[in-house]
Amino acid sequence: MATILEVKHLTKRFIDNEVLKDVSFELKKGETLAVIGSSGSGKSTLLRCLNHLSKPDSGEILLEGVDINGPGINLNTVRADMGFVFQDFNLFTHLTILDNVMFGPLRVRGQSKQEAEEIAMEEIKRVGMVDKIKSYPAELSGGQQQRISIARALALKPKLILYDEPTSALDPELTGEVLSVMTALANDGMTAIVVTHEMGFARSVADKVIFIDQGVIVEQGDPKEMFKRPRHERTKLFLSNFMNLE
Question: Residue 114: what pLDDT?
Answer without folding.
Answer: 97
